[in-house]
Design goal:
alpha/beta; Rossmann fold; 4 domains; 6-stranded parallel sheet; 27 helices; globular
């Protein structure tokens, strides 16, 4: 049986064809073996993210009626599991301390790296022009992951950056060029220091994991022998979104007799700039039977995509009639635009022209104003709306903030983290009898600040305590006595659990609040586990201080989605979120269509990403190169979004941006040939 390369645009049936081929494997190969289910476990299934992994696993299970379970993973989760599974092999090879590895969360990785590089940053040896401290740390960690994705050694990073990054220097200024080279070398030295520290303490980040897998695990003959025995089939859904190292893994399996199925979207690559290397993956095509699927005939992509791309790329040369299926919603201000979009959606649903679950609002970037305004307007019209993958900081939860205030009242040396505002909010949240006015009076007159031991004083301390009322006074005293009964010697995790059980369990909290409190407990458990490993002599109060600061900075998020969201809901998403979720709708509303953000990669493109692709030629990455790459990315996403649109497209734009400047984005020519409503 030959390998299969299935290529086609969005909604063309690539995954369906993949599932059919898997079913053929089950009939021709698995069913004839002594243990068919054991045979199916030799199939490695790679999906781009956890949601797509679940979706693909479900489809394969349903298609085979659950008889042939497979190993479905994302590339990163596969690397992580393999590094953990063969940790002893890595310990022997690299000769570092034998201890069970601990995976660092992103927020902990950032905090710890900042601490490791503190001296380098404060002395100015580790720096990038115009980049703040937090962003600098994040950029270095991302460079490490990009290098590992591309199969590069960490020692190659300085030379790659020196050759590829364009700097504003005077021509012939050798001193400045030397300083730039030293700056990149300092970046490489800092990353090597970080990797050494993580190895010594058994800490794993996604950069560390991928680096260990590509440079130390995959080349190991012992591991390769195990890999050949474990997997005889490989399935990759959306290879265009995968990193180069995942392609190297598949190459190894194919070279050792494994059978493969690969799907590829030439208009995909949404993760280009985040580690995906779609060009490198196409090397596998020569070893496969190629199946080209036509574009879905029921989408706007099959009707107008070619002319839309021409209008956007060469607007002066195009003279066409306005599209009947492309409409524009215009306004002067952005605030008015939100209302116009909501009214258009409301009228369309009320008239029966479209259902709520057939509408998607897509934007190049969703700020808090747009997210809140559109959702509130539609909800007031009794239309459900679901922000896709809405991640909110734990610090946005009043329950979480109140628990942090409680911690500061019980454990020593945390008084500087508590203010009267914190106390007032805590009194309102933890009790149901104290309103904001009485909470403010209690915080003003009955809270005694202290850097070591702040405390709540008796209600009678307030000389007009009778104004508080009986119920509020009793609730306050009950809370105050509960705090006094807590000992700072108990583990903070136990204290948080006690507080939740005492104050929140008797109430019927929403799923959102319950999920947020669960995320807080998991974060705290992990945080203390990490710091106990790094320094067992560190006191709980010191760790608690760092933990409170971490949560309040907003670096830790939770997903407050409902477990069963309403089916009749409008989807609100960024372009990246929508494409990665592989959604499609009859009607799409492109928000901020006149914005320059449509041409920019934004958060979906990491610093230096083009230099870590396999096809980089080693030359300087210029502004012209970036402009060409942005235009290619724009063309891909336009065709991809049009392939996900069924009947109608609305271009929603305002003359002025949020800061009051005129907008003249790359989609203006398309707006001009649309039908205005």
């Amino acid at each position: 049986m030959t390998n299969l390369w299935i290529e086609g645009g969005s909604c063309s049936g690539k995954t369906e064809r993949l599932v059919q081929q898997f079913c053929e494997w089950t009939e021709t190969d698995f069913a004839n073996q002594a243990n068919p289910q054991a045979a199916s476990q030799k199939v490695l299934v790679l999906a781009v993210d956890s949601q797509q992994r679940r979706n693909l696993s479900d489809r394969l299970t349903i298609a085979t009626h659950g008889r042939y379970p497979v190993t479905a993973v994302t590339p990163l989760s596969f690397f992580r599991d393999e590094v953990r599974l063969f940790w002893t092999l890595l310990v022997k090879k690299l000769d570092f301390k034998a201890q069970f590895p601990l995976l660092l969360r992103v927020e902990n990785e950032q905090e710890l790296a900042d601490e490791i590089w503190k001296d380098r940053i404060e002395t100015g040896t580790l720096r990038m022009e115009g980049i703040g401290r937090d962003r600098l740390v994040r950029r270095l960690l991302d460079l490490f992951l990009l290098a590992a994705y591309g199969g590069r050694e960490i020692t190659e990073i300085p030379a790659i950056l020196d050759a590829g990054i364009e700097t504003n220097i005077l021509e012939g200024s050798e001193d400045v060029q030397t300083n730039e080279a030293e700056q990149w070398q300092e970046v490489g030295d800092a990353l090597q220091e970080w990797r050494k520290y993580c190895w010594e303490h058994g800490l794993l980040t996604y950069g560390i994991i991928t680096d260990l897998f590509v440079h130390h695990l995959l080349p190991s003959p012992q591991y390769q022998r195990q890999l050949r025995q474990r997997f005889q089939y490989v399935i990759v859904d959306r290879a265009d979104e995968m990193p180069a190292i995942a392609c190297d893994l598949c190459k190894f399996l194919l070279e050792n007799g494994a059978q493969g199925i690969f799907t590829f979207n030439p208009d995909g690559s949404a993760r280009l700039g985040l580690g995906a290397d779609h060009v490198y993956w196409q090397q596998l095509k020569s070893d496969c039977e190629i199946v080209n699927l036509p574009h879905a005939s029921y989408t706007l992509g099959s009707q107008i995509a070619a002319s839309v791309l021409q209008v956007v790329s060469e607007p002066i040369l195009q003279f066409i009639e306005p599209y009947a299926t492309v409409h524009s919603i215009e306004s002067v201000s952005r605030a008015k635009l939100f209302r116009n979009v909501a009214e258009a959606i409301t009228e369309a649903i009320a008239s029966g022209a479209v259902k709520a679950n057939e509408i998607a609002i897509i934007a190049p970037g969703l700020d808090n104003i747009a997210n809140y305004a559109i959702a509130e307007i539609l909800r007031k019209k009794n239309i459900n709306i679901i922000p896709l993958n809405d991640q909110r900081p734990l610090s946005h939860s009043a329950q979480v903030r109140s628990l942090l205030t409680l911690i500061a009242l019980v454990y020593p040396n945390l008084g500087t983290l508590v203010s009267r505002d914190h106390i007032a909010e805590m009194l309102v949240v933890l009790t149901e009898a104290i309103d904001p006015v009485r909470a403010g009076m209690l915080a003003d007159y009955c809270f005694a600040p202290h850097p070591d031991k702040p405390q709540l004083l008796a209600a009678e301390t307030y000389n007009q305590w009778n104004r508080l009322g009986y119920e509020a006074t009793q609730a306050y005293e009950k809370l105050r006595q509960w705090i006094e009964q807590q000992s700072p010697k108990i583990a903070p995790l136990l204290f948080i659990d006690r507080a939740i059980q005492n104050f929140f369990k008797p109430r019927k909290l929403s799923y959102e609040n319950t999920a947020t409190l669960q995320a807080l407990i998991e974060t705290a458990q992990y945080y203390w586990q990490l710091w106990y490993r790094l320094n067992r002599n560190r006191e709980d109060s010191v760790i608690a201080e760092k933990f409170i600061q971490l949560i309040r900075q907003g670096n830790v998020t939770a997903n407050p989605y409902s477990p069963n969201p309403p089916q009749d809901s409008v989807i609100l998403a960024t372009i990246f979120q929508y494409r990665m979720a592989r959604l499609s709708h009859r009607w799409q509303f492109w928000l901020d269509a006149s914005s320059d953000l449509w041409l920019q990669g934004g958060a979906a493109s990491l610093f230096g990403a083009p230099m870590f692709l396999k096809n980089w030629n080693g030359e300087l990455w210029t502004i012209e190169n970036q402009r060409d790459a942005d235009m290619q990315r724009l063309q891909k996403l336009l065709r991809d979004l049009l392939d996900r649109t069924g009947d109608r497209l609305y271009l929603c734009h305002s003359e002025l941006s949020t800061n009051g400047q005129l907008q003249n984005g790359v989609l203006i020519p398309l707006i001009e040939v649309s039908t205005t409503i």
